[in-house]
Amino acid sequence: MIRAALLLLAPLALAQVMPMEVRYGAQPRTVQFSIPGAAVPLVAEGADWVCTLEIVYRVVDREGKTLDQATETIPVRLNAAQRAAAVAQPLALTRPLPQHAEAAEFRVEMTGRPAGVVFAGSLPLGAASFSTEVSVALVPFQVERSGGKLVTDLKDEDVVVMEGNEARKAKIYAVGGRQADAMPVDITLLYDRSGSMRVGAGGDPEIFRKGLLEEFPTARVAVYGFSEKLIRFTTHTRDEAVLLRALSQLNTVPPAGTPLYFAVAETIRRFDRKRPAVRILAVFSDGLDSGSDVTFAEAMREAQAAGVSIYPVVVASAAPLPPAPPPPGASRKKKGTGVAPMMARVGSAMQFRHLADSGGQDMSATPGMNSMTMLLREVTKKLRDSYVAAYQPGEGERKVRVVLRDPSLGKVIGGTRTVVR
Fold first, then answer.
1. What's the confidence (pLDDT) of residue 108?
2. Are residues 295 and 165 in the same domain?
3. Could you point out which of 35, 288, 293, 365 has its C-alpha 20 to 30 Å from the C-alpha of 69?
4. CA–CA separation, 362 and 347 (whole Å)
């Protein structure tokens, strides 16, 4: 039973479906789900605010068959002072996670009565046995045989992680597959919506399901947009309708400045670092940064500390670069060829591309092409038949690499990271 003081009124439309964040709890074998406190649908009853939360928990296998189901009803009553105190607080509930050998997903559905607002979310259970210690570092990699075929049957004893000249034991996990211990994948899409980037983000309405969700049952996607401010349109979810709605809302971001590296760093900070997962950030931008109080180097350091691989997607600008102002004290001359602004744009794009040094891949797109399709195609190609080496790093900043104990197994692709602890 949760204390009523955590809840808040927000009158919403009947039958409206809202996303719910579901993740592993801080304690072993627990799951936590949460919604913004301002979204809880209380209704006025005299001087109080009330609702009843009807919650259904389900554990399902890979075919969607229910292995375990439970229900819970929570009556809520708040006075005006309690409601006012809960404005900025989320509703967060932690519950025991049922243990089933064939479990693939934990699903939560909560209905607020009498308004009928439904909140829903799910958590892939493939990595339930993996330690959630924040001191564990994840190093993604693949192994390619001489003929170009990727190795798919690696074992823990085949791999070691090298910190300088020191070898450390590692636990090996497949990435995003259907194995019981597959490593989940969290992907965040960050769209530059500044004045020079007023290009659409639409495409195939089945793009998420076809390009990612069907092939990787442990993958989740979040969507952010920014110009002067960073806006989150959805947390990490597998709900296809929620993701498509988030993309459609990107056009609501008012065009303004471009604090690019602030947006990159802040989005990285919003990844769930307690959840063991391969973390990918795809940034759609022309690479121009203005008004940011975060540098490229600082954004890269955030990526290293969080274990996030960045995919910078350079989108050709839909608007011309404004001319650079003359230096202080210089006289204004007649219009020239515009070489300086052009070089400034090229230099910014080149630096932006180097975000891929975090372990991702840099790509290019032009207005009108489906850059999302291209991105998901490349991401799934990189994730397919991939592994993660999980190990406990030493203190400080360390450059690490994955090494095969038997070099005849093949060649390691990727497998390098700068780990900050």
1. 93
2. no
3. 35
4. 15
pLDDT at 133: 44
Same domain? 285 vs 403:
no
Q: Within this chain, do residues 284 and 351 fall inside the same structural domain, yes or no?
A: yes
* The predicted structure's pLDDT at residue 199: 52
Is the distance from CB of 125 to CB of 103 less than 8 angstroms?
yes
Residue 331: inside a domain, yes or no? no
Cβ of 28: how many Cβ atoms within 10 Å? Answer: 10
The pLDDT, as a whole number, for residue 274 is 76
Percentage of the chain exceeding pLDDT 70: 79
The C-alpha atoms of residue 239 and residue 377 are separated, in whole angstroms, by 19
Write out the residue range of the structural domain in which residue 167 sits.
137-175+386-420
CATH, residue 15: 2.60.40.10
| Greater pLDDT, 329 or 410 | 410
User: Do residues 158 and 77 both lie within one domain?
Assistant: no
Higher pLDDT, 395 or 353: 353
- Answer whether residue 7 shows pLDDT above 60: no
d(CA 374, CA 226): 21
pLDDT at 269 over 90: yes
- DSSP letter for each residue of 1-66: ---GGG-------TT-EEE-EEEE-SSTTEEEEEE-GGGS--EEETTEEEEEEEEEEEEE-TT--E
Which amino acid would we find at residue 320?
Answer: P
Say whether both 44 and 191 belong to one domain: no
Written as one string, the DSSP assignment of 370-384 is -HHHHHHHHHHHHHT
> What average pLDDT does the segment 204-225 reach?
84
Distance (Å, whole) CA 131 – CA 125: 13
- Phi-psi bin for 359: left (phi > 0), alpha (psi -120 to 50), beta? left
- Specify the pLDDT at position 174: 86
Question: Is the model more confident about 74 or about 10?
Answer: 74
Sequence-distant (6+) residues with CB within 8 A of 214 are none
Q: Which residues contact 273 (CB under 8 A, 6 or more apart)?
A: 134, 306, 307
Give yes or no for a cis peptide into 114 (omega within 30° of 0): yes
333 belongs to a structural domain: no
Q: Is 127 left (phi over 0), alpha (psi -120 to 50) or beta?
A: alpha
Give the tens place of pLDDT for each residue, 106-145: 899 999 998 888 999 888 775 333 434 446 788 889 999 9
Measure the CA–CA gap between 260 and 24, rounded to whole angstroms: 31
Statement to judge: residues 285 and 367 lie in one domain: yes
